[in-house]
Design a protein that fits this description.
By secondary structure, this protein is mostly helical. It has a single domain, classed as Hypothetical protein af1432 (Orthogonal Bundle). 51% of the residues lie in helices and 0% in strands. The longest helix is centred in the C-terminal third of the chain and has 18 residues. The C terminus is likely disordered. The chain binds fe (ii) ion. The site of fe (ii) ion (FE2) has 7 residues, from α3.
Length: 182
């Protein structure tokens, strides 16, 4: 799987902790092993990753919540940024941390993805600053899902709105990871 390599490359480019991005990338699809519906029995019943009412309508996204719970409970991962990145790698979320945003982009554009237009999307999105890249990926996911006539997860819409308001941060030299060349 190419998510790990792309996540590390992007993390290094964007000034994000590459080791954390690698760990999140290694864990994110850990529980994606069978039919999505089979994960229902493993959904967390307490703690931060209990599925919301909205989450229950999207079985294809449950594997992130289950993987975060597994990483925390069975693997002893305590880093909240890594756990959140794993939990919300498909949907995104408002105030998503930078490890999560990096994984969100890497997961969508990793080298084995072959959806229509993926090469153009990579050329357009990957050179962008972190917040812009994540915004474009969120937008493209939303466009694709609505073209398919399917329901979009509210978290993805909310994250797109949040990112739109925060994209200016990407050009702010005071933002973590952006080198001030002056
Ligand atoms: Fe996934």
């Amino acid at each position: 799987m190419g998510v790990e390599g792309l996540a590390v490359t992007l993390a290094e480019r964007w000034g994000v902790d590459a080791e954390k991005a690698l760990i999140a990338a290694l864990l994110h699809d850990y529980c994606k092993t069978g039919p999505d519906e089979e994960l229902k029995a493993f959904l967390p019943e307490d703690g931060p990753y209990v599925p919301t009412k909205d989450d229950m309508k999207f079985p294809q996204l449950w594997h992130g919540l289950v993987a975060a719970e597994t990483a925390s409970r069975d693997f002893g991962v305590v880093d909240q940024e890594i756990l959140d990145a794993v939990a919300y790698h498909s949907t995104g979320t408002v105030d998503f941390n930078e490890i999560g945003l990096t994984l969100f982009v890497a997961d969508h554009l990793e080298p084995t993805r072959n959806f229509a237009g993926v090469s153009e999307t990579r050329r357009e999105v990957l050179p962008l600053p972190l917040y812009d890249a994540a915004f474009r990926v969120a937008e493209k996911k939303l466009e694709y899902i609505s073209r398919e006539g399917k329901e979009t997860h509210p978290k993805t819409r909310q994250m797109a709105e949040w990112l739109e308001n925060h994209r200016s941060l990407a050009g702010n030299p005071l933002r973590k990871g952006v080198v001030n060349s002056t």
